Automatic annotation (TrEMBL):
An example molecular function term from Gene Ontology annotations: ATP binding
PANTHER family: ATP-BINDING TRANSPORT PROTEIN-RELATED, BLL7188 PROTEIN
Species of provenance: Silvanigrella paludirubra
Name this polypeptide is given: ATP-binding cassette domain-containing protein
Origin: domain of life: Bacteria
Residues in ABC transporter domain copies: 5-237, 340-536
Record keywords, A-Z: ATP-binding, Nucleotide-binding, Repeat
Length: 536
């Protein structure tokens, strides 16, 4: 059978010799595969190997179809125009010259049969973005959701056989997520998707899990994976329990035999003396006895060792369940204390003669407020956050602050200095008197153990960057009075999301949150929703 993608005996070692995975095989000719696993275990690495950006250490990958790759790091597109992101900039320039009657033979070759390209592009983009958008617009002027929408349009234009996504639903509002889910259902392409979005993972036909055990293929969706994984874990734990019981019995038997041998040897020695045996006869008899005892002891020692080896082999089949340990220093603010208030605020951008919102915004954040800011892409969520952070002055209206102890966790983890290590970033946030061992303990709570703490931020995965940012934000001696989180679950593995939601529920300061993650939001105790769609 011919497969569009065939992975055979795949293995990959990091430059330092660390094994990520080995002996992995799978073939695909249709369907959707989800890839899951904890942050930093190699999900993005696997995708880069599949598309050929990284070379595998061992094994073979056979690609029989056109592959389109949708990366996790959208920031690399920020300096490009939309037309360049879509890889149609040269073709559109040639079309403009053709309209003016200035097209060269090379221009006509570039255009080929795509004379209606601009309309086709705008039609595709309109499926994701309802307002008109110039193809000359630069990426860094787009919201996160708008940028993702442009990248979806890029995939549709390329018409690939295999589409590879790395965290595609990050930054997508609920409407765009629904469109993306519909797109998955109607497309004939093969999808390979790294994600922590449980709703998306339950639309997959198969799941590949990356863990300390390597890569494992499950022929069903996320719920099927969970059920099967629990069965596998339970079976392994039962085997381990059984072996522990056998090992305990074997050790007791070994101890009893040693006691019996010692007792028999003592009795035999006393009997020999009583019977008047010579020292030579006693020594000869003891030598024979010792040899027999040695054989018996060796036999039981080998049985014990065999059981210990079996136990160690089974323990290696258990997942290592490392968890982040969030330590938020308690803060308690008066429930009715006004921390931040926005009065009749609105904003005009330099290139616009219209206000962002059709109605001015009024909102008060009290000491106990737990507020979700909702809105579709382009509704002004990031602009509002900048006002709350005092990073942007509104065109009209006033913002009042009763505190400057505001912590902000943004989508791009911009708090971190990419050119230095996690450790040095941590030092920048920690109090001056915090010693190195304390820093390393706190970093370890976010799974940056031993030399991992000296990794340069620029080489971290998306999830590792988020963990490092959280660690830095919480390194301060005092908890923030106001904690603002912008899509905090982007790139965070599912278990870490659950831990984060638990600790945010325990946080007693002012919480302001932007998130489109329904599973994350249902676990949070929120008391107010600001719906920006009502203002645009």
């Amino acid at each position: 059978m011919s497969y569009l993608l065939s992975v055979q005996n795949l293995a990959y070692y990091l430059p330092d010799g660390t094994l990520l995975f080995k002996n992995f095989n799978f073939n695909i000719s249709s369907g959707k595969i989800g890839i899951i696993g904890k942050n930093g275990l190699g999900k993005s690495t696997l995708l880069k190997i599949i598309i050929g950006e990284l070379k595998q250490t061992e094994g073979e990958i056979i690609r029989n179809g056109k592959i389109s790759y949708f990366p996790q790091n959208i920031h690399e597109y920020f300096d490009y125009s939309i037309s360049k992101i879509l890889n149609v900039d040269k073709k559109l320039e040639a079309l403009k010259r053709a309209e003016l009657g200035l097209a060269s033979i090379e221009d006509l070759q570039i255009i080929s049969n795509d004379w209606n390209l601009e309309n086709e592009i705008k039609q595709i983009i309109s499926k994701f973005i309802k307002k008109n958008i110039s193809l000359d617009r630069i990426g860094n002027t787009l919201s996160g959701g708008e940028m993702m929408s442009i990248l979806f349009a890029k995939v549709l234009l390329e018409k690939p056989d295999i589409i590879i996504f790395d965290e595609p639903t990050n930054n997508l509002d609920l409407e765009l997520k629904r469109y993306f889910y519909d797109f998955l259902n109607i497309s004939n392409s093969i999808f390979i998707i790294v994600s922590h979005d449980i709703n998306l993972l339950n639309k997959m036909d198969a799941i590949i899990e990356i863990s300390n055990l390597g890569l494992k293929y499950y022929s069903g969706n996320y719920d099927f994976y969970l059920e099967q994984m629990k069965i596998d874990e339970s079976s392994t734990l039962n085997k381990l329990t059984n072996l522990n019981e056998r090992l305990s019995r074997q050790k007791q038997k070994e101890l009893k035999i040693k006691e019996n041998l010692f007792r028999n040897s003592s009795r035999s020695h006393k009997r020999a003396i009583k019977e008047g045996m010579s020292a030579l006869e006693i020594g000869s008899k003891k030598e024979v006895s010792d040899k027999n005892q040695g054989k018996l002891s060796l036999c039981h020692f080998e049985k014990t060792n065999k059981l210990i080896e079996e136990k160690n082999l089974i323990k290696e089949k258990l997942r290592k369940n490392y968890k982040i340990n969030i330590d938020i220093i308690p803060v308690k603010l008066p429930d009715k204390k006004i921390m931040i208030s926005l009065s009749d605020v609105n904003h005009k951008f330099d290139n616009s003669d219209q206000y962002l919102w059709k109605n001015n915004i009024n909102i008060i954040f009290f000491g106990s407020s737990r507020v979700l800011i909702k809105g579709n892409s382009g509704s002004g969520k990031s602009t509002l956050i900048k006002m709350i952070m005092n990073k942007l002055k509104p065109t009209i209206g006033e913002v009042f602050y009763a505190t400057n102890k505001i912590a902000y966790l943004d989508q791009s983890c911009s708090l971190l200095n990419s050119e230095i290590s996690i450790f040095d970033n941590f030092k920048n946030f920690a109090s001056l008197d915090m010693e190195e061992h304390e820093i390393r303990i706190k970093a370890g709570r976010f799974l940056f153990y031993k030399d991992l703490v000296f990794k340069k931020v620029s080489i971290l995965s998306g999830g590792e960057k988020l963990r490092a940012t959280l660690a830095c934000v919480l390194a301060m001696n005092q908890s923030p009075d106001v904690f603002i989180l912008d899509e905090p679950t982007n790139n965070l593995d599912i278990e870490s999301m659950e831990i984060l939601s638990y600790h945010l529920n325990e946080y007693k300061g002012t919480l302001i949150l932007i998130s489109h993650d329904e599973n994350f939001l249902k676990d949070l105790r929120l008391d107010q929703v600001l719906e920006l769609n009502a203002f645009v």
